[in-house]
Amino acid sequence: MLRHIMTAVLLAVVALGAAQAHAVQPDEILDDPALEARARELSAGLRCLVCQNQSIDDSDAPLAKDLRVLVRERLKAGDSNDEIMDFVVSRYGDFVLLKPPFTPHTWLLWFATPLLFLAAAGGIFYAYRRRSRAAAIPQALTESEQEHLTRLLDPDTPETGTPESGGKS
Amino acid sequence: MIAETGHYALILALGVAIVQMVLPILGTRLNDPRLAAVSIPAAQAQFLLICIAFGALTAAYVTSDFSVLNVWQNSHSAKPMLYKISGVWGNHEGSMVLWVLILALFGAAVATFGSNLPRQLQANVLAVQGSIAVAFLLFIVIASNPFLRVNPAPFDGQGLNPVLQDPALAFHPPFLYAGYVGFSMAFSFAVAALIDGRIDAAWARWVRPWTLAAWMCLTLGIAMGSWWAYYELGWGGFWFWDPVENASFMPWLAGTALLHSALVMEKRDALKVWTVLLAIITFSLSLMGTFLVRSGVLTSVHAFAVDPERGVFILGIMAVFIGGSFALFAWRAPLLSQGGLFAPISREGSLVLNNLLLTVACAAVFVGTLYPLALESITGEKISVGAPFFNMTFVPLVVPLLIAVPFGPLLAWKRGDLLAAAQRLTAAAVICLVTIIAVLAVNRSGPWLAPLGIGLGLWLICGAATELATRSKLFDVSWSETWRRLRNLPRASYGTALAHAGVGVMVIGLVSTTAWRIERIEALAPGGKVDIAGYELVFQGVEERQGPNYRELAGQFAVTRGGAPVTTLTPSKRAFAVEKSATTEAGIHNSWRGDLYVVLGDPLKDGAYSVRVYFNPMVRLIWIGALIMFFGGGVSLSDRRLRVGAPKRAKARRVAVAAVSK
């Protein structure tokens, strides 16, 4: 008897602080495998509202269980996937969708990455063009370079340390 | 007394850090080498003082001194010693002390081993490091003091969150912080270069080892966190695109880009301005990671601090360092000269592509992580950004990157030959195609993209092997010559090949476990059976057990395969009385095919239990891949150490190698 009480206490404590995910319970699973597969697919896209970026499929919070059961009830009633998602969103708002909807408020979210990619690629292209053009334009010699050249060209003072011979040593 | 010593040492460290921040800069401005040289003993003294503080806090934890508020809040006398020690950084205050300890360690390393750095650069780098230390030490002393006392001292502590009482998680924060803080070296070098208005290839040679070391630590830290999530959270998930995970992933992506761009700078003296900017971005993301996790902006198990005062303080630190460094960059970057030219198809070009894709991928994670926070604070509207968003934005950037990886090392610097590189990769491509077809033929279940993913992983591994084969002229010269060449290849080449192959191994693990995992959810009474992936599990009932600071309910599952006994798995639910919470311990059997993963759920009617059994094919490759990447970084680092600093003559280096190998 004492043993059973201990077990009950233990289980109560376990249930109290159950922050870990246990997700779908055996009794929730639908008999029809096709419907169950659809339920799992829908669940993976719905957020457990009290969790940190967890889907209701991964969470064992009571609220997640309620939602899972709700999704399955609607499936059994013959709703389509879109109808179910619309129904859940109408009750809980866009927050419940792990894939944010495409609305004016999320345009920036969805377009930011592709736009940034295009901008960065364009920037690289522009920088490359500018630099290769800059490299193609011959620069005027500086005074010291001009002086060096004059000395090189002057037959009276032959210069030995040319860059070519210097590089080989 | 010990706690007060620690407190005192912390305040002294703050004073020393102020000296370290101010005097070296003055010295370099006033051209006074003696003043600049103060940076060296200051950095060393700061490290010693923070060691004392950290030691004092650890001592308080080890001896369970509950008169210290922090110990009372986060420890318990019945806790195993490992978790008493890891409890030091398992809370907000202690983790900030660990943060500055690692910061000071890096600073002291530059002071002690940086004798071949130009004096002025060293002084400036240490001054910038000092300024970061000042900011965080101020934060600790003012808003997060771990040494506060309680009077009268409570009889026993409140315990540590049981979720954190786990070996992988005990060492997850030190590695993560070593990564975050390690990037401060790249940041300090970048800011020092901007202050100087001068930068050259030697700068990159200096920055790369530090960045590589930080990157290795971060790789391991993230892998540990994901490994922990896999076995502890109870359904075999390993990555959730949780904001806290993203906070560590963003510096990793930027740091990976930095490693590659610093390579271009070191070898070809190009991409200087970009490398400096990337160094600043990488550390800014590390600071942001600290802010996101520490400020309580995100509420999750990681966010110990829900005190807005602290959040505002860290936000201030962030604003000063990120804003300041970007302003400095805008002002001084035009002074940095541009380096060597290169054709689009070249080693440099491939590394630019790497940087483009990695930084945009990092931006995708950034937008996905911060957009909901920004939207909520502006409009009050709450949205969720979960895995589907990242799969649609992040993955399309990473897949082309991974396809391109094997080409990079086969292209020559300045001007490469794409066709020749492609020809060298023919064998690798054939192996991948054959594998893809074989996987398609054998395994018809799962998404049709999955075999292609396996092929991609194999492509990376074969590409890495091709690089080594090309460098050793395999089949072009005699076997002995190839062997001689292989032995003489620089370790950095092996490091590159290993790291790239590690990514491939990880991709195979990710794809196969995502595409082909099997799941059974059953209500099992004792004697009940589950068949999965060729295994048969028989539930033999539950048993109560007493752990050091918890009681657990353990299920017994006899596992057989084709009638032959394999193992007995005991998944359990642990109840921690002191902390009044519970954890789930999965029972995992590992084989080369994959993991058999059993979780004991809640009791149902008639003595039955809800039991879930998973088979996760090849899931371990994810972490084995991360380990290979870590190891590759280490191999590369062991090469770099010999080459760091002033260029030595080949002869002198050979002598040095001989001396080291003895």
Description:
- The complex is a heterodimer of chains A (169) and B (662).
- Chain A has 169 residues and is mainly α.
- Chain A folds into 2 domains: 6-101, Helicase, Ruva Protein, domain 3 (Orthogonal Bundle); 105-159, no CATH class.
- In chain A, 60% of the residues lie in helices and 0% in strands.
- Chain A contains 7 helices and no strands.
- The relative contact order of chain A is 0.07.
- Among the domains of chain B are: 1-160, no CATH class; 425-516 and 621-644 and 654-661, no CATH class; 518-617.
- Chain B is 63% helix and 11% strand.
- Chain B is built from 22 helices and 10 strands.
- In chain B, strands 2, 3, 4, 5, 6 and 7 form a 6-stranded antiparallel beta sheet that branches.
- In chain B, helix 10 runs antiparallel to helix 11 (272-295) and helix 17 (426-442) runs antiparallel to helix 18 (450-471).
- The radius of gyration of chain B is 27 Å and the shape is globular.
- At the A-B interface, helix 1 and helix 5 of A face helix 13, helix 14, strand 1, strand 6 and strand 7 of B.
Q: How many structural domains of chain A?
A: 2
| Overall pLDDT score of chain A | 75
End-to-end CA span of chain B: 47 Å
**What is the overall silhouette of chain A?**
rod-shaped
Low-confidence parts of chain A lasting 5 or more residues at pLDDT below 50?
5-21, 159-169
Q: What is the strand content of chain B? A: 5-15%
Q: Nearest-angstrom radius of gyration of chain A?
A: 35 Å
Q: What is the CA-atom radius of gyration of chain B, in angstroms?
A: 27 Å
> How many E-type strands of chain B?
10
CATH architecture group name of the largest domain in chain A: Orthogonal Bundle
Overall average pLDDT of chain B: 87
The outline of chain B comes out as globular
The share of residues in helices of chain A is 55-70%
Distance between the termini of chain A: 95 Å
Structural class of chain B: alpha+beta
In N-to-C order, the SSE pattern of chain A is: HHHHHHH
CATH superfamily of the largest domain in chain A: Cytochrome C biogenesis protein
